[in-house]
Amino acid sequence: MKHILSGYPIQRPRRLREKAVLRDMVREFHLRPEDLIYPLFAVPGKDVVNPVSSMPGVCQLSVDNIVKEAVDAYKAGVRAVELFGIPPEKDEVASGAYDPNGIVQEAVKAVKDACPELYVITDVCLCQYTNHGHCGIVNGGCVLNDPSLDYLARTAVSHAEAGADMVAPSDMMDGRVGAIRDSLDEAGFEGVPIMSYSAKYASAFYGPFREAAESSPKWGDRRSYQMDPGNSTEALRETALDIQEGCDIIMVKPGLAYLDIVRRLKETFDLPVAVYNVSGEYSMVKAAAAQGWIDEKRITLEILLSMKRAGADLIISYHAKDAIRWMNE
Ligand code: PBG
């Protein structure tokens, strides 16, 4: 009774914070190297390293340099990469996206040859490959849904044929997971998982990526297919549909400003949840760090850990290689 009478608290949360060893012992969430997926951008040519000005530290790389970077990342502890391609030519129907000798297909083959243990995921979308920059087939100023599905499915199959371990559709057409699943199964790739960008918002946070991937829409925007930032419950409906259609991993994109959605997906569904720590989030950290305004290492590790705490099992992040290096220090 003495403590109550004298006004001292019985419960003192600070007891568990006093010593580092105990803080480590009672920590609820952990960031691990295997949580992170490292994105890479493949361009045509040989020995090409094009720095992306809005994303310091990120470069477009020709396939020979993609291989070097992938091997280097693997040695640093990166377990998985996600490959994006920028084709030599773009057209109405995104021919480069499903070309068996296309840029991503070549990059996948070369990376799997050089480093078979590295898990290779491919982004499945048409926007880098279309001359209008939209994620589907266009007619009369509209992005057509059903005609786009066949092209997306062909793209996914061509990635699997090149040796991709997993495909990740990011286009947001209705029914694309089902179309991709059917085509993969028909082609004998029933073991290749689909990580669906199931709740992908129409976001200004993708700005720097569009420089990296040269994928800005030439007219209009992506609001007729990507989700409205004002919606939350819609993310559950979108994700439920993708699960019905056979996806294996669900995703929220962007990350930081959408961690409430990560939490809702985690609590609603029993599939692994991925989150995309997108280009704009990366660039903001890099810009502030370059000014000396923030501690890049601490901020980055805190952001990634916060994504785990929100409910993410996997994080796609341009910080992946640095973060793993910092984790291991
Ligand atoms: C392609 C795609 C985009 C991103 C990943 N896949 C851009 C977009 O939808 O415009 C964004 C990634 C990032 O910003 O880091 N559809």
UniProtKB/TrEMBL annotation:
Binding site for 5-aminolevulinate 1: 210, 222
GO biological-process terms attached to the record: protoporphyrinogen IX biosynthetic process
Cofactor: Zn(2+)
The EC number(s) this enzyme carries: 4.2.1.24
UniProt name for this protein: Delta-aminolevulinic acid dehydratase
Oligomeric form and interacting partners: Homooctamer.
A GO term for molecular function: zinc ion binding
Keyword ATP-binding: no
GO cellular component: a single term: cytosol
Keywords, sorted A to Z: Heme biosynthesis, Lyase, Magnesium, Metal-binding, Porphyrin biosynthesis, Zinc
Residues given in the record as 5-aminolevulinate 2 binding sites: 279, 318
Active-site residues (renumbered): 200, 253
Positions with a binding annotation for Zn(2+): 125, 127, 135
Known function: Catalyzes an early step in the biosynthesis of tetrapyrroles. Binds two molecules of 5-aminolevulinate per subunit, each at a distinct site, and catalyzes their condensation to form porphobilinogen.
Pfam families found in the cross-reference section: ALAD
Family in the record: Belongs to the ALAD family.
Catalytic function, reaction form: 2 5-aminolevulinate = porphobilinogen + 2 H2O + H(+)
Cross-referenced InterPro entries: ALAD, ALAD_AS, Aldolase_TIM
Taxonomic superkingdom: Bacteria
Residue numbers binding Mg(2+): 238
